[in-house]
Amino acid sequence: MNKQTIRDVDWNGKRALVRVDFNVPLDDEGNVSDDTRIRESLPTIRYLLEHGASVVLMSHLGRPQKAKSEEEKIRKFSLKPAAERLFELLPEASIVHKTRAISGEAAEAAVRNLLPGAVLLLENTRFDDREEANDPTMAEELARLGDVYVNDAFGSAHRAHASTEGVAHHLPAVAGFLMEKELNFLQGTLENPEKPFVTIIGGAKISDKIGVIENLLGDVDALLIGGGMANTFLAAKGYDMADSLVEQDSIDLARTLMQKAAAANVDLILPVDAVIADAFSADAQRQTVAVDAIPGGWRMLDIGPDTVVHYADVVRNAKTVIWNGPMGVFEMEPFAAGTRAIAQAMAEATDNGATTVIGGGDSVAAIEQAGLADKVSHVSTGGGASLELLEGKILPGVAVLNDK
Ligand code: ADP
Ligand code: MG
Fold first, then answer.
1. Does residue 210 share a domain with residue 232?
2. Contact 193, 166 (CB under 8 A)
3. Tens digit of each residue's pLDDT (9 = 90 or more) over 74-89
């Protein structure tokens, strides 16, 4: 990675202003129901504390603009539950404070007397309308709260907001460990993949993934297509997909992508069989057929067993695998087998020494559901951000960090 990290700073006596991603789910009682994102930020926070810094944390949580009243805004979107969870996870910090302030006088007062070893969590940055507008006055106010800015919120790095981008123009700015890990695995893997390099692309729509496919076509040896988007490719090849989700206005595009793949010597592989259903429902009638034999009224909701055998084989023999997008409607158990089998093949490839990376919100949920998240090299914490990296885009929250 060509950006400075927290290792490149002498932290002694400094105040670190750290953008974390504490955008965690809350249950009905307002407690953190999944603290993964908080735990992922601990290595960075601990490093800063151990090296003599005090730490000021900022994050957004959800979309507070949607709240209908001030009371609802605080109840559903305050970072207080995250602060409490952090307090439990970080007993070695001398003090963990929380404040209702985000920036300005009250926040400056809260940080003023922060001693090395102490942590302060500011309130939800999106409580301030200037955050998402990347308002320069907010960025300047935030910058007064620290000596050095650290971005460890990979999942927000594709957004140019005051706390993810604007503030970095006013302070020395470096990456935290989570940010570094995500960039190394996603960007680093793309820049220097060990061959054979295989990508698996699925999910609902081809239109969501055009950028990813086009960016990867130059580098991969094989591109395995699954999920709803496979239907559009199959339709482009002339198959009758019956009631399957097909994006009619992307059929030409699918054809073009297949031509580009052929010209680039990339094996673009499509399903040969399908699990089909007579309704979009977990208790629909279902059967397995070849992709050229889908009866009227039926729809493809998962890749079939012959496809699974072939795809799993390609994955197991790869040295680098990147996966984005489920192979079927994995949220419904009868259509989860294809996705689960790919997750299993990823785990086996990892065992064989391959680098295996998963990005995308639903894909990550799928591998967690399969219980295999810790059996692959890297599971990205950032849905949108990881997709934009796979599309070859530069993330604004990364671009603004100091170069090595
Ligand atoms: P990610 O979040 O990993 O990038 P996407 O959002 O692109 O993935 O796609 C995930 C969605 O695609 C899931 O909700 C899944 O149900 C849906 N999907 C997968 N296969 C099909 C299919 N054959 N028909 C309809 N929807 C599908
Ligand atoms: Mg998704």
1. yes
2. no
3. 999 999 999 999 989 9
